[in-house]
Amino acid sequence: MNFTVQLNKKPLPIHPARVSAYLLNRVWPGKQRSMDQTELTEFVSFDLPEKTNELEIFFSAPENGTIEIRPLTLKFPMERTAKGIRLQLDRPCQFTVEAGDRHHVLHVFANPPLKEEHVPDEILFGPGEHHPGLIVPKSGQTIRIEEGAVVYGAVFLYKVKGVRIIGRGILDSSEIPRGNDRTCGESPVAVKVRELGLTRRDEEFSGGFVAYECTDLLVEGIILRDAPFWAVIIRNHCRNVRLENIKLIGMWRYNSDGIDICASQDVQIRNSFIRSYDDCLVARGAHLDGETTPLENMTVENCVLWCDWGKAMEVWCGKQPAPIRNITFRNCRIIHLAAIAMDVTTWYGSPYSSIRDVLFEEIEVDLNETLYSQQIQESDEDCYRWKTDWRPKLIVVNCDRLGPDLGNQVTGKVENFDSYHSVYDGIVFRNIHFAGEGGPLETILSRNLPQLEIRNLSLEQVETSRIQVEGIINNLSIKEL
Fold it and tell me: Which domains does the chain have, with CATH numbers?
């Protein structure tokens, strides 16, 4: 499917992105997945110059073929034309136009007007292609990626303050290998990690954009494409971080999460679009090397999420006892769902893991009449089977696994679990709804492990097919629709 687009009768450039073609995944096998598991999609990004703007999208489709705009409840005046559709846009937004199915999609990023405020000592990438490799700014610097620029590389921030990454261009990490991929040359991010005296495990947890122990960080407006691992990693006690109107697309490589916020404080993610191969948004407790501080005061608002595998929004407690607290997901739209929409969980565990004061509010999930199964690839010869017996979960609150972290998602065997204990306290799901055909999904609230204590768990106006409670939850409140 090739789209062409005009905004107020002026042609706009269309950009390609490589994405996962179906729900097939694998624990890292030491090499990247094969290209036949992927497909190309397209996106367009532009600023809205007027109060009301006419957007025309042209494509070839059967005369009676379906055309969906997602989020499904996003209502713009729309007219179907002989060659496509015509929309009237009056505000910034992100959405998809799906002509027939999810394999024929245009991702639309309509931005607010950008204020051009050049500053001294900025790293400027103007229109055109650039191949800087690894970009490592100093404290106080601005990285400006202008509209029309495609920057092939990665950004690594280490113990800096007051850095800004702004613009309307593309940061493309397709030339950066995964940190522990030894089949295609060494990652420049891994080289930098060693220069800084960090660990081999830190090499593995390197992506297209990493901020390590940074303060007063702003990322605004840019598009991040084709991350080698987690696309945006905020880790090791970053403070006062704002991610505003960023767009993530083109994630197809193993474990290419969207945004992972790890053991950091005062983080805001707003007005952004995430299409990731793996989990979209993860609030992570202390787990990576050198992490000891809490994850606290994290807010996600007004984001559009497309999850090609795994979980759309997750609160995840690791192996360190540092707490997670005051986490909010509000007014978000999940336009495609894989395994779980919202999840609170613990992997590996500690003597005292705690997750407190978490709110999921005003969340809407778009459904599909046909839902294909997630499948784990067992060997190189194992192919995807198009089975439709899969039902994702709406909400899961549990302890997924306990035991030593042996790396590569392997948990060590434990004979005695007496030294493990986790507490979830003050978890609220409020005003959770569906759009589209397919019916509501199941909710699982699990306290079936004695090592997990759940207190003050509330479901308020949650549209779900069934609530399954396993074990005793202290003060469970359910206020139905």
Answer: 4-111 (2.60.350.10), 123-479 (2.160.20.10)
